[in-house]
Amino acid sequence: MALWKESGKTSPAETPEAMDMARLDIPETRPKVETPAQPASRPTPTPTPTPSKPKTESLIAPDITIEGKIEGEGHVRIAGNFKGDVNVRGDLTIEPGARVTGSVRAEKVTIAGELTGNIESAAHVELQQSGALTGDLKAGSLSVAAGSRMRGQAEFGWDDAKDGNSTHKNQGHTGAPS
Question: How far apart are CA 105 and CA 92, in angstroms?
Answer without folding.
Answer: 9
